[in-house]
Fold this protein.
Amino acid sequence: MATQKALKRSQRHFYFADETLDFAAGWLLGYAQQGGMSPGELFYCFNQIKRESPLVWVKTFTEALHYQQAKASELEAQADPAGAAAHHMAAVVAARAILHMLNPTLPEARVVTEAMERAFQAAIGQLGVRLEPWAIPFANGYLPAYVSSDLGSAKTLFVVIGGGDTYREDLWFFGGKAALERGYAVLMPDLPGQGSTPYQGLHFGEATIEALGVALAAVRQRGFAGRVVLCGWSGGGYFTTKFVERSAPAPEIAAWIASTPIHDLQHVFEVAMPGFLRTNPSSWWKQQVLHLAGQMNPVLQAALEKYQWQFGPEGIAGIIEKFADARVNLERLNIPLLALVGESEDAEMIRQAEVVFQTLHARQPASSLVKFSPASGADAHCQINNLPLAQHTIFAWLQGQGL
Amino acid sequence: MATQKALKRSQRHFYFADETLDFAAGWLLGYAQQGGMSPGELFYCFNQIKRESPLVWVKTFTEALHYQQAKASELEAQADPAGAAAHHMAAVVAARAILHMLNPTLPEARVVTEAMERAFQAAIGQLGVRLEPWAIPFANGYLPAYVSSDLGSAKTLFVVIGGGDTYREDLWFFGGKAALERGYAVLMPDLPGQGSTPYQGLHFGEATIEALGVALAAVRQRGFAGRVVLCGWSGGGYFTTKFVERSAPAPEIAAWIASTPIHDLQHVFEVAMPGFLRTNPSSWWKQQVLHLAGQMNPVLQAALEKYQWQFGPEGIAGIIEKFADARVNLERLNIPLLALVGESEDAEMIRQAEVVFQTLHARQPASSLVKFSPASGADAHCQINNLPLAQHTIFAWLQGQGL
């Protein structure tokens, strides 16, 4: 089984024997620190999942979604906006849970994605949060995003960039909410490959990096004239590193946070991905192996199907070819960096975070590297089981920069 | 094993095979919705507890306490009050976890209790919360409490009353924090038998009910001139019911919340407590049975030792004799009541909540009974796995009363 997880992300055991489901369980529990589904609601679902299969998981969280939707409607009818918002936000998390294990090419997946978007937008509406949905024109389509309504008067924009597993609604929990509460303007975009963008034919690759530049330009056109802070999570750690490299010199970017910064994506795949993804250079062969691995474990198959969909026709196996120059020229990085890394992440992620930090610290002494120990609870990939600690670390550092 | 739990409190399984430890695990996880230890920190501890023994539990959470204390000091030295407060509040929860399984008569237990108090007071100090510790004179000793600093100008005082398992610091999570955030003044007292009061020779019984009256009079002497809202949890459901009966007519008490209201404590013990507590009227015999039951399960033994300490020389077995009149005269209750009950609680708790609600609803039509379903996550005893939902329900109801 050790080779059947996609990447070492955590050393914690929560509830399920299957590592993929267990990581998802811990992820959802982590969200409970910021609203979403409570531990009681989550374990009500977990307890119903006796057989660890994607089908049972999807069925269970679908019932939770319907329950939360009904409660939200009920409280809206009672003119109880805060109560309705709490249930809408729990509906977002239930929908998000479903999407962990539902083949995104099925029609049901689009229905769930739209339900998640509606629930999120209803929640922020009921709460009176100054955030609105925004379709940023890109290529022949658009980047689905949320953006602060009061961009024109904002001094600092906190841009949350997710990774291979995020929808724009996730970015609320990855700093969007915390930044708004602290008075920042916020941009939470889905870049190509993320969220629902593969439905538009947008996939991970060069377009992902380009799109970040397009989104920042669009923010300027929308009236924002302040400083930009980039905050990248998971794959977003690579996307932001690459973007900072390409943007140099980039006076408009005042600071950069990455959990974790990645300068050599190819090496991550070679060293940290399991054997069945890297033993043979032939994409065809790799895809066959993926298929076989999936047949052994339906949960892993569900997770891999989603990644395949996000990476486009060549799938995950073609990832390295998708980025014109997957390695980052460290010499071109020149923005103060806060690098966050969990001690329970893969050693290669920790190593690259150290390399990027050392490079930048010499040039930008305000740069900092924070390693989260197991006792901190923030030691997993993206600090997913103690996001408030990561967020406190981020905003304390920004405050130290006068941002 | 079914007879080895003290009372049916939950239908959820979280992590441990032992029901007492598992309920404690779910309790601690529930606190994570309001600060305290994160899911990551809690599961770091849970994962270390391979053998489900009180000793291992205590050792593990003692390490967590020391870790949080060290981090809090570190951040205080860095002039980071919000960061220090978060670690202090996690230290409170770690200490509270220890006290679930540490014999309170051991010297170590007093050290941990004092560490919990210091951490809580440091947290509210660092956060600038307008709450202060208060020793309310009572009998030959005092009731340890926290009270709002600005009582004189407050319109409504929200009084949080815990049960058989609470320390005054727990009351922060049981509505103290939520009430302060909504602009209420707050009183969070330990009544006789609760928290550290047995060290003063104070135990559950008549004194518990009397002390609530003493605390409310003391608040008046301290300058409070507004309306009082009582909110009782667990055993506090009984204490407040009894207090409301005795205070009638009680124009100073504007509203009463109980999760759950209990009018016949004796019947709860007869019907809902396990056989080994009720098969024989002889206290001596019952204590022998308790001793035997404890020998079968060291976790249960640790829990029962704590209860014995709280109930005084006659122990749990003498409980009924401890209250001069354990039954409440329903005819004397006449304050608007919000009764909260979880559908996964013991049937007798649900039944009594219904009886008290029906009685009051006829007299005080603003009264309401809210039953939380398993899907709500608030279906356990005290809504412990979704306290924010219970709190939202409480404050929406109070708002409806113009309070």
The two ends of chain A are 45 Å apart (CA to CA). Chain A touches chain B through 42 residues (CB under 8 Å). DSSP finds 15 helices and eight strands in chain A.
